[in-house]
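To fix ideas, we quote verbatim a fold written out as tokens:
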Amino acid sequence: MRGVVVPLVTPFNEDYSIDFPALEEHINYLQKIGVHGIFINATTGEFTSLNNEERKLLAEKGRELVSSAFYLVGTASTNTFEVIELTKHAQEIGADYVVIAPPYYCPLNDDALFKHYSMVAEKTEIPIILYNIPSCANPMSVSLIKRLALEYSNIAGIKETIDSINHVRNVIFEVKRERKDFKVFTGLDQHFLNTLLLGGDGGIMACANFAPELHLELYKAFEEKNFEMAMEYAQKLAKVSKVYELASSFGSAIKIAMNIRGFSIKPVLRPPYIMDRGEVKERIKQLLTSLELVP
């Protein structure tokens, strides 16, 4: 798995029920445009606002719909045994990978995090993508990532949602060089080209929900060694990533941008998240207009 992976939004109706027709439409669109992977129950998908039955149902529905891309399922939780349960379920339905963020809320040291991930890795066989997102969960050190990668062959890679190219560099140089099949993805649109240039494998980036053509063009240009074109698209992604600064949450920013671009996914978030409106929507529209992304 390389290239552009999309961490899906979860579409909701006005009554907060899951909008499955909109989910199907969006997955079909992403496959048609040619993304390399589709990731359900992601941070962008508001997985913390879903119960386990809904997460399993979404995982099963996604498995039915995804046919031309790698299929990833998020199985993170604060409860190790719940992570094992969700990971086993993803394995049983035939997902290609699971993505597991560290437990959040309770601070844990490297030994506790190693124990958490090792219990999951030992009880399942599906390839695991670690998910380092220190703004939301316990941070993962390079030494911990290396320890897990060298100990467990089914720990297959990492998504790095960290605004530090030095950290990503160290993971690539210290882990990937020692275990060449270990995948390193950025979770930040503005670090997509940086990560590829350092020897990483791609990006799992939320803005690809509403502007996947930018990510795909950058990746194509990089693969073809057209670095002038790759730089042009990297600058566009650096600008588009400012959408996160304009809203109160990732989900609000992405769903507003999708609404402006004409996607049928409703601008609805589950509580405790709220949708930004008015001035926020207008600022996001101005940003997208400057990038020629408004129909």
Q: What stands out?
A: The first strand starts at residue 3 and ends at 7. Residues 3-224 form a domain with the TIM Barrel fold (CATH 3.20.20.70). The radius of gyration is 18 Å.
